[in-house]
Design goal:
By secondary structure, the protein is mostly helical. Helix content is about 55%, strand content about 5%.
Length: about 140
């Protein structure tokens, strides 16, 4: 798990689509790029990853993007999986043979606890939860 730029923008795109698909026509990439202040080209990569992960869909070239599932069914972990292959914050948690301290490292327990808490938060927080907080804040 890497909390990288692609994940940050991916979450912003998902929130943008969820909040701005009010007319049933979907949300257009140019509008997302403008609102999120991201280049159209970079946004292409983000959107492609979200489409491959089946989180967003675009029925035709003339339509905008839609969430592929209701926001209550999309978790932060689903979005994270669109951009990262592993769920572990430290490589040694999923690949212990890379570390000569594996099995003896006292810090590994700390990383495991932190990793587990992050995974719990990400797997139980839905896009609907985030949208609800956003609506209440505005």
């Amino acid at each position: 798990m890497r909390l990288n730029t692609k994940l940050r923008y991916g979450l912003r795109v998902m929130i943008d689509i969820a909040l701005n698909n009010t007319d049933g026509k979907g949300v257009f990439q140019k509008d997302i790029a403008f609102r999120q202040k991201v280049s159209f080209k970079y946004l292409d990569h983000i959107i492609n990853s979200l489409k491959i992960a089946r989180l967003i869909t675009r029925p035709s070239l003339k339509s905008g993007y839609f969430l592929a599932r209701p926001p209550e069914e999309i978790t932060l972990l689903d979005i994270e999986h669109a951009f990262n292959a592993t769920e572990d914050i430290q490589q040694c948690l999923s690949n212990p043979e890379i570390c000569e301290m594996s099995g003896k490292c006292r810090a590994q327990k700390v990383w495991r606890k932190l990793n587990d808490r992050i995974l719990t938060f990400m797997s139980t927080t839905t896009l609907a939860d985030i949208i609800e907080e956003e609506i209440q804040a505005s």
